[in-house]
Amino acid sequence: MKLNLEQIKSVTTGAAKIDFYDGKYVFSRFNDIEAKIIDHPYVSSPAGIQMNFKTDGNILKLKVQAQKSIDIRSYFSFDVFVDNIPAGTIQNFIDSDCIGDYANVDYPLGTFQKDFDLKDGDKYVKIHLPHSVTAFIEEIEIVDATYISPVKNDKTILFYGDSITQGFDSLHPSKSYASQLAELLNADAINKAVGGTTFNPNLVDVSNKIKPDYIVVAYGTNDWNAVDLETLQKNVKGFLNGIEKNYSGIPIFVITPLWRPDWREVKKCGEFFNVENTIKEIFGNRENITVISGFDLIPHSESIFGDLILHPSEKGFEHYTNNLLKYFQK
After folding, report:
1. Rounded to two decimals, what is the model's pTM?
2. Domains identified in the chain and CATH numbers
3. pLDDT score at 70
């Protein structure tokens, strides 16, 4: 059974739209208005998008294409799970070679294909699409399948944020903190995070058709570099207003910037903790909002960053996820 566009749409979560053109399926996590507001190459990355389905087919045949979204980060992986157990990947790197600053290494891109043994009988298949590049599916076939049916969770978690929430620098999309947290909460993820972005009130206003059960907001580290304190205060207040208007009563978890080795420097916004203090002051003291200090969510060590300065590696994301989960459990 070769899957067609309608079948792919039916089993996909985290996508605002899916199209077929130029011989490939194109997955978009933003609608056209959102993409125009953000205006950044990383909007083309399918971060957080998954295919989740049950089937009785015995082989998954997957042909994919990967392109750079921007002039850095060319590693990628399509992660495949069968009954929640890793069944393999399509990837362009060797895990054991990715040490030190692996984020800026050039890895081969283009078209890749692979067959995955699904074994006999009914099973649950999950495919995580990459977060780090622009990626497409050219063909997907389930050999000897008599059916394919979607699997969706009862809950949805909506993520707003920058490159860390998008998934950098987890080598595998299934191991980013957003993917792990959604898995632990039995929730479908909608990832609206884009690398390089800051608090943008306009984005909240055009995303208001989504009705999530939880929301995570994680900006600030780019704001520290990009805007002055007055602009930060204005943007954070505007973002809060949009959140309260569109998502009244929904539990919201706001994460301040993670520790980074250059945190003692003074940037455009002033001292590093100006950002955390501003977020706490504006988002704090609201019944449905939990503000979490990101500074101690991960160890203070360059060794747990994929680029040695800003973006957690999979080890860093493991700490991030476990420490963040405690706030949801409360």
Report:
1. 0.97
2. 5-150 (2.60.120.260), 155-329 (3.40.50.1110)
3. 78
CA 229 to chain centre: 27
Return the residue matching tokens 């389905």.
Answer: 53
Which residues have C-beta within 8 Å of that of residue 259, sequence separation ≥ 6?
A: 294, 295, 296, 298, 300
CA distance 319 to 119: 34
pLDDT digit string, tens, across residues 41-59: 899 999 999 999 999 999 9
Is 30 within 8 Å of 46 (Cβ atoms)? no
Number of Cβ atoms within 10 Å of the Cβ of 180: 21
Give kind and range of the element (H or E) at residue 217.
strand 214-218
CA distance 214 to 185: 10
DSSP 257: P
* Sheet with 17-21, side-by-side order of all strands: 17-21, 24-28, 134-143, 59-67, 110-117
Given 3-state DSSP classes, what are the helix, strand and coil percentages for the chain, each rounded to the nearest 5?
30, 30, 40
